[in-house]
Amino acid sequence: MDQTIVLVGFMGVGKTTIGQALARKLDFQFIDTDQRIEAEMGMQTTDIFRVHGEAFFRQKEKETITQLVKKKKTVLSLGGGAFLQAAIRDTCLQDGIVICLSLSFDGWKERLDDLLPTRPVLQGKSLVEIEELFYNRQAIYQSHHKKVVTDALTPEEVADEIIEFVLKKN
Ligand SMILES: Nc1ncnc2c1ncn2[C@@H]1O[C@H](COP(=O)(O)OP(=O)(O)O)[C@@H](O)[C@H]1O
Ligand SMILES: O=C(O)C1=C[C@@H](OP(=O)(O)O)[C@@H](O)[C@H](O)C1
Ligand SMILES: [Mg+2]
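Above: the input record for the complex with magnesium ion. Below: its predicted structure, written as tokens.
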């Protein structure tokens, strides 16, 4: 099993945290596409959105993911908006094993205060608007090979469930 494992799901669900645990357990390279874009631009995501705009970020996201998904023995954690683009969904489903991380809105709400400062998409929105975004976004995450509900699991346990799936699949 050497295919790239792609983690998708709404912001704050745990893609970056679980991706790191998963890569360590599999001895795969870990790449977070937001961190990759931030390093390349020398700016935080929030500043990229503010200075260059969301369309610019989405274009960078597409270029970055299209290239990285071709790698082997890699865990690729995407940003929560990446699957808005059909081209990203298609390339990830074709070249990678796509794992959708899912969390209830009640569970997610507990993380809101931690997420607000670093997630530009949440800024200036009321809780009702955020809840609407949470549910509206769910449709794009239905493109996957496997879904893991993470509410009652630690990052390590989620990683173990993903490993069980990918080993069975191959
Ligand atoms: N399974 C989990 N249980 C509890 N907290 C978690 C879990 N996964 C992630 N977190 C916490 O949720 C927050 C967002 O995690 P992060 O990995 O940045 O999400 P994402 O990359 O999907 O936006 C962090 O504070 C992280 O520690
Ligand atoms: O959902 C989104 O549109 C975004 C999610 C973020 O990543 P996380 O899902 O890792 O928070 C990051 O890519 C950017 O702030 C936009
Ligand atoms: Mg992340």
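Notes for the reader.
The beta strands are 5-8, 29-32, 74-77, 97-102, 146-149.
The pocket of adenosine-5'-diphosphate (ligand 1) is lined by residues 11-18, 77, 111, 114, 150, 153-155, 158 (CB under 6 Å).
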